[in-house]
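Anyone up for a design puzzle?
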């Protein structure tokens, strides 16, 4: 997969894309990262004309359409055989979910535009990008941190990136539920003991315990997720028990 990030501050990404799992993905040639400075496509001799005040007045500045259109068109011309998805990171976008993250594996080249200032010219939204994505209902100074989060979420799903192929399948949200509690050595620390069932070696019982813990954690912390989760009849019965228990308390 290729990820091309359009930003006014590409230096922010240097350490991020060279470290940890993403850095190893690049070393393994599973990921190719391209940084694109929006200033390189600006008008004027000094390449600084990337923003302007909004028509009709108002606070702040908007990113102009010309540099963004030029940048995206240049990338698509250079890598014309790729399957592209162009994403604008903006608080006005759809909230990022695991399902959306997984959908980006259908493409082999993500172009991520990092918004700045008061946003971008509306013509960019309407005619240049495929998706507008938000991390949540809060504001950041720019789209760079959001672009990192999106990149990390997608890259870890690329086959071969994670050491254990089971890792992302067992994590929070992959089945529509929060992940179950996890423990490691020592079996007892400061009087706090690992649940006996995890030490039993009985894989079927461990699996059932984990499922119930995942259901309970989701029920208590994110009940909204249960509405779309793929639940078995046994899961439904367990959730009914949790509801009855909650009523009694």
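Challenge accepted. My sequence:
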């Amino acid at each position: 997969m290729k990820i091309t990030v359009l930003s006014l501050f590409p230096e922010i990404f240097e350490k991020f894309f060279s470290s940890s799992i993403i850095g190893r993905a690049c070393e393994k040639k599973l990921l190719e990262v391209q940084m694109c400075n929006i200033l390189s496509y600006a008008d004027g001799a000094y390449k600084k004309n990337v923003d302007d005040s909004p028509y009709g007045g108002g606070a702040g500045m908007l990113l102009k359409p010309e540099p963004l259109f030029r940048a995206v068109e240049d990338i698509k011309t250079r890598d014309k055989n790729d399957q592209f998805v162009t994403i604008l990171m903006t608080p006005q976008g759809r909230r990022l979910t695991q399902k959306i993250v997984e959908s980006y594996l259908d493409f082999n080249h993500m172009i991520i535009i990092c918004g700045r200032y008061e946003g971008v010219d509306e013509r960019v939204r309407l005619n240049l990008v495929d998706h507008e994505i938000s991390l949540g209902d809060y504001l950041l100074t720019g789209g760079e941190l959001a672009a990192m989060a999106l990149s990390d979420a997608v890259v870890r799903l690329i086959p071969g990136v994670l050491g254990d192929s089971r890792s992302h399948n067992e994590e929070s949200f992959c089945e529509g539920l929060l992940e179950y509690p996890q423990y490691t050595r020592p079996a007892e620390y400061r009087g706090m003991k690992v649940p006996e069932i995890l030490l039993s070696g009985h894989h079927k019982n461990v699996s059932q315990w984990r499922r119930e813990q995942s259901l309970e954690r989701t029920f208590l912390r994110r009940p909204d997720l249960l509405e779309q989760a793929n639940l078995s009849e046994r899961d439904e019965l367990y959730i009914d028990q949790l509801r009855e228990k909650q009523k009694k308390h």
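A detail worth pointing out: Residues 15 and 37 are 16 Å apart (CA to CA).
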